[in-house]
Write a structure and sequence with these properties.
Layout lengths: L4 E6 L2 H9 L8 E4 L7 E4 L1 H4 L9 H7 L4 E3 L3 H16 L5 E5 L2 E5 L4 H4 L2 H16 L3 E6 L2 H11 L4 E3 L5 H5 L12 H9 L5 H5 L3 H20 L15 E12 L2 H22 L1 E12 L4 E12 L2 H14 L8 E9 L2 E2 L12 H13 L17
Parallel strand pairs: 2-4, 7-8
Antiparallel strand pairs: 1-6, 1-7, 2-3, 5-6, 9-12, 10-11, 10-12, 10-13
Helix pairs in contact: 4-6, 12-13
The protein binds magnesium ion (MG).
């Protein structure tokens, strides 16, 4: 059966939310990003893009190109809230919604015709509803697979709908620069350019055996399929992981503050390891404490940016003990740490954030030894919660 896959991408999402919430910014160049000396642009409004400002550009350069722009620090909690509204709309059309990042998702509309009408009408309805219910513009691509749908939504930017019917696939791909095809990185694009292959049409004209001699059997076969717009990868709905947590009841009550802080730190690091493993980032850290008399308290803090950074998460968790008045009044029988507001790691604001070297090192340790081997030095001993 032929499939209908929709790709939805919010336009200049962070900047658009700022313009929505602050009417005086509407129609003005807006740059959302880290405002520190090493800050980088997260999103630029279309008005700022006209001056050459784009994502991942150093803020200092953006200030030079567009000094009169409004420079705004990101408000991830708010963006997440708006994204939640958008997800709810997408989910009302299909159970198969696969988020790629906070503002981008695939929706499998195959077989939804009886409920919602032809896929093309659904695409228009969904596009209208997002505009009407969130006040924000999005671009929508509709095609027979994820590859083509993603390319179609790019073609629809900003604010449009682009449908690629089966008979139009060749005409749609032919003029596209090969570097735009999903899955062709700068290196492959360069190798292709050196061999005179610049567009989708050029790529389709290259023999399969020649592609395989350039890129090996797998790489060659992949490019051959890309050139024909072939892609049978399924839309994989996101696992429902709104929060993760871990708690430990101790065989003997804990009294010493350093020991309690150390345990909380261990729990936080173990959870950060799970985030890394599942490629998620957390925006909220919670700490739960239960005393010997069973009184229980929970405190939470919203992080300035989503993260999976074990040290930052552990520091926030320990700070909650101090700030939240969770000091040991009597013995502590249970400690828990939770992470919530989880978003896909594709949303990592890399450039806005602390060095990711530690996260990389953590990923390395995890892949070699598994999470149970992970521990972090802390003052007060090296015991791990059981
Ligand atoms: Mg977007």
């Amino acid at each position: 059966m032929a499939r209908w896959i929709l790709h939805m991408d919010m336009d200049a999402f962070f900047a658009a939310v700022e313009q929505l919430d602050h009417p005086m910014l509407r129609g003005q160049p807006v740059v959302v990003g880290g405002l520190g000396p090493r800050g980088v642009v997260a999103t630029a409004s279309y008005e700022a893009r006209a001056f050459g400002v784009h994502s991942a550009m150093p803020i200092a350069k953006a200030r030079m190109l567009c000094p009169h722009a409004a420079f705004v620090p990101p408000r991830f909690a708010r963006y997440e809230q708006v994204a939640g509204q958008v997800w709810a709309i997408l989910a009302s059309y299909s159970p198969l919604v696969e988020p790629l990042s906070l503002d981008e998702a695939f929706v499998d509309l195959t077989g939804t015709e009886r409920l919602h009408g032809p896929a093309e009408e659904t695409a228009h309805g969904l596009h209208r509803r997002i505009r009407a219910e969130t006040g924000l513009a999005c671009s929508v691509g509709l095609a027979g697979n994820k590859l083509l749908a993603k390319l179609a939504s790019e073609a629809a930017k900003p604010g449009g709908i682009h449908v690629v019917h089966e008979q139009d696939v060749e005409g749609f791909l032919s003029p596209l620069p090969v570097g735009r095809l999903w899955g062709i990185g700068p290196h492959t694009a360069k190798v292709l350019a050196e061999r005179g292959v610049h567009t989708g049409g050029d790529l389709r004209d290259v023999d399969a055996s020649l592609l395989c001699s350039w890129f090996g059997p797998r790489g060659g076969a992949h490019l051959w399929r890309l050139a024909r717009g072939l892609d049978d990868s399924p839309v994989v709905p996101a696992r429902e992981a709104k929060s993760i947590s871990q708690e430990v009841t101790y065989p003997e009550d804990l009294f010493q503050e350093e020991v309690i802080a150390g345990e909380v730190r261990q729990l936080a690091v173990a959870l950060a390891a799970r985030l890394v493993e599942e490629r998620l980032l957390a925006t909220t850290v919670r700490v739960k404490i239960r005393w010997a008399d069973f009184t229980t308290r929970t405190r939470q803090v919203q992080l300035p940016e989503p993260t999976d950074h074990p040290v930052l998460i552990a520091d926030e968790a320990v700070a909650l003990l101090d700030r939240g008045g969770l000091h040991a009044e009597s013995g502590v029988r249970l400690l828990g740490v939770g992470l919530a507001g989880l978003v896909p790691a594709t949303f990592r604001p890399e450039h806005l954030f602390a060095p990711s070297a530690l996260t990389d090192a953590l990923r390395e340790v995890l892949s070699r030894h598994g999470p149970e081997r992970l521990t972090l030095g802390f003052p007060g001993g090296d015991r791990r919660p059981s």
